[in-house]
Design brief:
The protein is an alpha/beta fold. Helices cover about 45% and strands about 10% of the residues. The chain is built from eleven helices and eight strands. One of its GO terms (cellular component) is plasma membrane.
Length: about 375
C-alpha cells in the first residue's frame, strides 16, 4: 500500500514537473516573440522618422541652394545620406538608455517606453534589430505603361525587355509554370502586363486583335483589369508571370513612383547599366549588335564605386554618367536626349520601402512597409 502511494505521488510530481517545464518554455517563447516584434517595430519607426526628417531637410536645403545660386547636384542627395544612417538595436539601446530625449517626432510618440530611463543592465531593446530603406524612385514605374505616349511606352518596354532578356531567365519562356502556362517570349510577357494596365481593349503585342478574346481562350483564362496596378501582387495574375519572375519583377518595379525616370543616385548599378541604358540606345541601333564588354566595364566601375566611403551611387549625376558612358566606349550607341528621359539625378525623398528585422532568443519578426515621407504615413505593412 505504501509503495502504491509512493508511486502515485511520484507520478503526480513528475507530471507536474513536466507541465511546469512546458509552460515555462512557452512563456519564454511568448516573451521572445513579443520582444522580437517590439524590436522590429522600434527599428521601423526610427527609420521612418529619419526618412521623414530627410524630406523636411531636403526642402530647406533646396531653398537655400536656390537663394545662394549653388549647383543643385553639387552635394550628395539628402535622401541617400539619411539612408546611410544605421538603425540597429545596439545604437538605439545606447540612445534610449540615456533617456531617449533625442527622438521627439510626433508620429512616433505612441511608444510609452520612449522616455523611460533604463539601466545599462537591462537594455531597452534586448536582442537584435535592423531597419533599411530603399527609394521607390530608383525603380521602374509599372503603371506608366498605361500612358499612350509613344516615347514613354518605348522606353519602359525597352527597360522591361532588357530585364527579361537575361539568358538566365530563358527557361521561364520555354517551360510551363505550375499552372501549365508560360509566355513564349519576353515580348509576350510585357504585352500581357501592358494589357492588364492599359485602358483599351486591344492587344499590346497585336493591336488589331481583341485582348478579351485572347485571354478568354487561354487554358487558364482571365479578364484583364484595364486599370493601374493597386498592388504589385496583381502581377501574379498576369499571363506568363511565374513565382520566380514575380519575385524579380516585384523587387525592381514600383506602383508608387509616378515618373518614368530612374533616380540614379539611389538605383543599384545593375538597374542603371543593364536595364536603363538599353532604353537609351539610338534609333536604328539594335542591342544585339552592341558588344557586352563596354556594359560590363561600366557596371564593374559602378560596383567598385559603391564601396568608396559607403556612398553608393549618391554622388552620380547625369553629367558624370554621360562621361562614364563615353569612357566605356558606348558613346556611339547611346542617345543623350534619351538618357535624360530614362534617368534623373534630381533626388526625391517621398516614397520608400522599409524593411525591418527584430530577433530575441529563438523568435524573429520581419516587417516590410511602404512609407510616404512627405505625409509621414505608412501605406502598406506586412509582418512575418
Amino acid at each position: 500500500m505504501v509503495l502504491l502511494i509512493i508511486f502515485m505521488v511520484t507520478a503526480v510530481v513528475s507530471d507536474f514537473q513536466y507541465n511546469s517545464n512546458v509552460d515555462f518554455e512557452l512563456a519564454i517563447n511568448a516573451r521572445d516573440e513579443v520582444q522580437a516584434e517590439y524590436n522590429a517595430l522600434s527599428a521601423l519607426r526610427v527609420r521612418a522618422m529619419i526618412l521623414r526628417q530627410s524630406n523636411k531637410l531636403k526642402g530647406g536645403l533646396d531653398q537655400l541652394q536656390k537663394i545662394a545660386g549653388m549647383d543643385m547636384n553639387a552635394m550628395l542627395p539628402i535622401g541617400k545620406m539619411m539612408e546611410m544612417i544605421p538603425v540597429e538595436c545596439g545604437i538605439l539601446s545606447s540612445f534610449l538608455s540615456k533617456g531617449g530625449d533625442g527622438f521627439s517626432e510626433e508620429s512616433f510618440d505612441d511608444d510609452p517606453a520612449s522616455g523611460e530611463v533604463l539601466s545599462d543592465e537591462e537594455p531597452p531593446l534586448q536582442g537584435e534589430c535592423l531597419a533599411t530603406a530603399e527609394s521607390e524612385h530608383s525603380k521602374i514605374s509599372i503603371n506608366m505603361l498605361r500612358r499612350q505616349s509613344n516615347r514613354t511606352s518605348k522606353e519602359l518596354t525597352a527597360m522591361l525587355l532588357a530585364m527579361l532578356s537575361d539568358p538566365k531567365l530563358e527557361r521561364h519562356f520555354q517551360e510551363d509554370d505550375r499552372n501549365g502556362n508560360h509566355a513564349e517570349s519576353p515580348e509576350e510577357l510585357i504585352g500581357a502586363i501592358q494589357d492588364w494596365v492599359d485602358g483599351n481593349t486591344e492587344q499590346a503585342i497585336s493591336p488589331s486583335s481583341d485582348e478579351e478574346n485572347h485571354y478568354d481562350f487561354m487554358d487558364e483564362s482571365y479578364k484583364v483589369k484595364n486599370a493601374p496596378f493597386d498592388s504589385l501582387a496583381e502581377l501574379q495574375l498576369v499571363h506568363g508571370v511565374d513565382d520566380d519572375l514575380y519575385e524579380m519583377l516585384s523587387k525592381n518595379m514600383s506602383i508608387y513612383n509616378d515618373s518614368t525616370r530612374i533616380e540614379i543616385a539611389t538605383a543599384p548599378p545593375e538597374r542603371i547599366v543593364f536595364w536603363g541604358l538599353p532604353a537609351t540606345i539610338r534609333d536604328g541601333v539594335s542591342l544585339d549588335t552592341i558588344p557586352i564588354e563596354p556594359f560590363a566595364a561600366l557596371y564593374n566601375f559602378l560596383v567598385d564605386s559603391t564601396g568608396i566611403a559607403g556612398l553608393g551611387m549618391g554622388s552620380l549625376n547625369l553629367g558624370m554618367l554621360t562621361t562614364l558612358i563615353q569612357e566605356a566606349g558606348l558613346g556611339a550607341y547611346i542617345d543623350e536626349s534619351k538618357l535624360k528621359n530614362v534617368f534623373t539625378d534630381k533626388s526625391s525623398t517621398t516614397w520608400y520601402t522599409v524593411s525591418a528585422m527584430g530577433r530575441a532568443g529563438n523568435a524573429s519578426r520581419r516587417i516590410q512597409a511602404v512609407f510616404q515621407a512627405t505625409e509621414g504615413n505608412f501605406y502598406y505593412m506586412r509582418m512575418e
